[in-house]
Amino acid sequence: MLGGVTVTFLKKDGDLVTPGEKIALLSGNTLNILQGERTALNFLQRMSGIATLTRKFVNVLEGSKAKLLDTRKTTPGLRIFEKYAVKVGGGENHRFGLSDGILIKDNHIGAAGGIKNAIEIIRKNTGYGKKIEIEVENMSMVKEAVAMKADIIMLDNMSVPLIKEAVDFIDKRAITECSGNVNIDTISQIAATGIDYISVGELTHSARILDFSLKNLVKINEA
């Protein structure tokens, strides 16, 4: 009970729901229920929308080896909830923050003067045990990343044929991930390349809400 309101859940996280189905019953002080209604529904709708979209992507990937990842493109202040919603939908989480892993991006490569320099600087200044992931955009960069023994190679904004070429060249010498311009219509083709992970920003930045409403208040309790 919170604020004089008791909630009885009829569904648990990850359960499928159908239109018109009840998911919870509330009882208690009507004023408290109505004061919290919109905030609670906003959270519920937002997270359920993310979980639902994630499940759609996961269903498309069924039968492939590829795993679905989210990104850090989340709503400020809500990352922990949105990434939890991805997990509920059957996806997996990428980094929560910059300190959770080393990802060398294009601007880092530019600042360091190339892939070789960037990886050498990271290895010199990072403790043992952290994997190094590097973002690449073409086969020349793929080959340099493999030569430098990067742990994870992210294929950024590549066409499906180029992803396939890169995955074949890497040949399990690094974990492979792709990102950029992935959607529900293209993800099965990308998975067919043999990629290990596919990261999709759309899961959190573009998911439509799942519409819920509070209905059938039957008694006003003024206590």
From TrEMBL:
Keywords: Glycosyltransferase, Pyridine nucleotide biosynthesis, Transferase. Residues 3-48 form the Quinolinate phosphoribosyl transferase N-terminal domain. SUPFAM superfamilies: Nicotinate/Quinolinate PRTase C-terminal domain-like (SSF51690), Nicotinate/Quinolinate PRTase N-terminal domain-like (SSF54675). It catalyses: nicotinate beta-D-ribonucleotide + CO2 + diphosphate = quinolinate + 5-phospho-alpha-D-ribose 1-diphosphate + 2 H(+). Coiled coil: none annotated. One of its GO terms (molecular function) is nicotinate-nucleotide diphosphorylase (carboxylating) activity. One of its GO terms (cellular component) is cytoplasm. GO terms for biological process: NAD+ biosynthetic process; quinolinate catabolic process. It comes from the Bacteria. It is an enzyme of class 2 (transferase). The keyword Transferase applies. InterPro entries: Aldolase_TIM (IPR013785), NadC (IPR004393), NadC/ModD (IPR027277), Nicotinate_pribotase-like_C (IPR036068), Quinolinate_PRibosylTase_N_sf (IPR037128), Quinolinate_PRibosylTrfase_C (IPR002638), Quinolinate_PRibosylTrfase_N (IPR022412). The keyword Glycosyltransferase applies. Residues 50-215 form the Quinolinate phosphoribosyl transferase C-terminal domain. Pathway: Cofactor biosynthesis; NAD(+) biosynthesis; nicotinate D-ribonucleotide from quinolinate: step 1/1. Its EC number is 2.4.2.19. Involved in the catabolism of quinolinic acid (QA). Belongs to the NadC/ModD family. This is nicotinate-nucleotide diphosphorylase (carboxylating).
